[in-house]
Design brief:
Elements (H helix, E strand, L loop, with lengths): L14 H15 L6 E2 L11 H14 L15 H12 L10 E4 L2 H7 L9 E6 L4 H8 L3 E6 L18 E5 L11 H14 L2 E5 L25 E6 L1 H4 L7 E4 L5 E2 L2 E2 H12 L5 H10 L2 H28 L3 E3 L5 E5 L6 H12 L1 E2 L1 E2 L10 E5 L4 H15 L1
Parallel strand pairs: 1-13, 3-4, 3-5, 5-6, 6-7
Antiparallel strand pairs: 2-8, 7-8, 9-10, 11-12, 12-15, 14-15
Length: 393
């Protein structure tokens, strides 16, 4: 028996374990400390009533012989795919039902999609980045190139014509930086991908946080993207499904390579290796798209938006450079006084008892930056920012 040798090449992910250890050490030495965590990427608002009621109804249905649902369609139930189709249509993006696949979240499909592509491909990943893109490709032994995201390009790298890439990752609104591509930015990536015969894996997990109407929620708002892109989306941050698990992936029928339909390959992959998302969960996800559901999830997102506003105002008052927070739940700030990411972490923990995430944990370009998230409790977020403002005085 031989193992996949590429698992040896994975770097240990120390980021969140190191944060947890340093916070534990601090609280042991300072048991009275009132620590506020603005580092978490998980949501805190509960599922909205429309979702819970739909899941309750579906559970009751399952308790009766005539309403029982066993194995469902691997690509998801028609009722949910139709609701997603309507959601895209409202923004002018026409999708066929067969182009929509229900998943148990964006993370699984982002990893699983790589089944379709050869290990010989060169992958282009922005730096800093959501670590899943890098690790899933390292596991398959693919060559990885990095596109520098930095203060000069507003943490939104554009394609470099001399770089040859086959698989390109874009995440907008971005985790960890909160930066959001404009339509023109995405057009440049689509042009580049079409020219290179590359595929863009577009992560739209935070699209629901966009408030500026001029910014694209989906790469398919850009003409030509249907020939070069796959989009991953999730109910996790949109509707608090991080523990409930549901997402969707759009694989256009027009996307082809080597005479093969990527949509047909994905269907084949899913029907072979995946048995679908629970009926009860898909009914809950369907309720997100009802007028009531939309109003309720927007209310929860509104809480995070208000947190982000409070954070952005405090950082602006302190004269700290940052990006994000306006159309995204993440704020990415430059560590003041030339501190490194971990120095900033230790400084905020010991002087303000505020925990964030060191930017260096997301790639080399993250060094000297720091991520704060707006997913916390509003009162604690306000308190944390007041502590930072007080520190700066
Ligand atoms: N994509 C990005 C950019 C994320 O930040 C996350 C979660 O934090 C995910 C995908 C995973 O989403 P899901 O919960 O749907 O697997």
């Amino acid at each position: 028996m031989k193992l996949n040798p590429h698992y040896r090449e994975l770097e240990e992910s120390y980021l969140f374990t190191t944060i947890a250890r340093r916070v534990a050490e601090y609280t042991k030495a300072h048991p009275q400390a009132n620590i506020i965590r603005l580092g978490i990427g998980d949501v805190t608002q509960p599922l909205c009533p429309a979702v819970v009621e739909a899941m309750e109804r579906a559970t009751l249905e399952m308790s009766q012989a005539q309403g029982f649902h066993g194995y469902g369609p691997e690509q998801g139930y028609g009722f949910l795919r139709e609701a997603i189709q309507g959601y895209y249509a409202a923004r002018g993006v026409k999708l066929a039902m067969e182009e929509i696949f229900i998943s148990d979240g964006a993370k699984s499909d982002l990893g699983n999609m790589l089944d379709l592509f050869s290990a010989d491909n060169t992958v282009l990943v922005p730096d800093p980045v959501y670590p899943v893109y890098v690790d899933t490709n390292r596991m398959a032994g693919r060559r990885i190139l990095f596109a520098d995201a930095n203060q000069q390009n507003g943490f939104l790298p554009l394609p470099q014509p001399e770089v040859q890439a086959d698989i390109i990752y874009l995440c907008s609104p971005n985790n960890p930086t909160g930066a959001v591509y404009t339509r023109e930015g995405l057009e440049k990536w689509v042009e580049y991908a079409l020219r290179q015969h590359a595929v863009i894996l577009f992560d739209a997990a935070y699209e629901a946080f966009i408030v500026d109407d001029s910014l694209p929620h989906s790469i398919f708002e850009v003409p030509g993207a249907e020939k070069c892109a796959i989009e991953f989306c999730s109910f996790s941050k949109t509707a608090g499904f991080t523990g409930t698990r549901c997402g969707y992936t759009v694989v256009p029928r027009a996307l082809e390579a080597e005479g093969m339909s990527i949509n047909a390959m994905w269907l084949r992959r899913q029907t072979t290796k995946f048995n679908g998302v629970p009926y009860v969960v898909q009914r809950g996800a369907e309720a997100v798209f009802t007028p009531q559901g939309q109003q309720q999830v927007q209310k929860a997102i509104g809480v995070y938006r208000q947190n982000a506003r409070v954070m952005a105002e405090a950082l602006s008052r302190m004269g700290i450079w940052f990006v994000g927070g306006e159309n995204s739940p993440y704020l990415w700030l430059k560590c003041p006084g030339g501190m490194s990411s971990w120095e900033c972490f230790d400084y905020l923990l010991s002087h303000a008892q505020v925990v964030g995430t060191p930017g260096s944990g997301f790639g080399k370009n993250g060094e000297g930056y720091f991520r704060l998230t707006a997913f916390g409790n509003p009162e604690q977020t306000r308190q944390a920012m007041q502590r930072l403002v007080d520190l700066g005085q």
